[in-house]
Amino acid sequence: MNKIVIAVIGVMLMVGAFFAGQWFDFGADSQNSDELVQATDHYYAMDRFIISIADENFTRYLVLELSLSFATSKQNIVDAETYTPLFRNALVKKFANLNHAQMKTGFEDIEQVQQSLLADFNAVLKGKSSLELNNILITNVFIQ
After folding, report:
1. What is the pLDDT of residue 122?
2. pLDDT value of position 58
């Protein structure tokens, strides 16, 4: 009987120690996760961009959805919203004179398109804002 009581008390102590460790560890994890959230990039989804594509026989369109990645700060978020019309203008300049075949082959390498847009958008921002984009993600592309 004494051995059973000692075993039960031992198990209860181990379970208590386990949950106490989890509780203390949770507090450290939540503090670390707050630091991680502050250190990560902010993603700003632009409105859908639609532009007509030159084609003799059909009406064709490019539909493009982009997300901009930049360091998280209130000013950067405001600047991303403020300069969105200039980004959209850069998109028009880039795609307005391309025909359907050029558009299709151009989007075969999405990574290259993203890097090209990143350079274009950062050129728009240069001298106007402290915002510098880290990445541009193409979240949807449709060429009809």
Report:
1. 97
2. 83
Give residue for tokens 């379970």. Answer: 15
Contact call for residues 99 and 55 (beta carbons, < 8 A): yes
Mean pLDDT of 14-33: 57
pTM: 0.70
Query: Do 14 and 26 form a contact (C-beta atoms < 8 A)?
Result: no
Distance, CA of 129 to CA of 70 (rounded, Å): 13
* H or E element, residue 61: strand 60-71
- Of 114, 95, 111, 91, nearest to 103 (Cα)? 95
Distance in angstroms (rounded) separating the CA atoms of residues 143 and 52: 10
From residue 133, alpha-carbon distances to 18, 110, 136 in Å are: 45, 17, 7
Top-confidence residue, 46 or 40: 46
Whole-number Å distance between alpha carbons of 19 and 96: 62
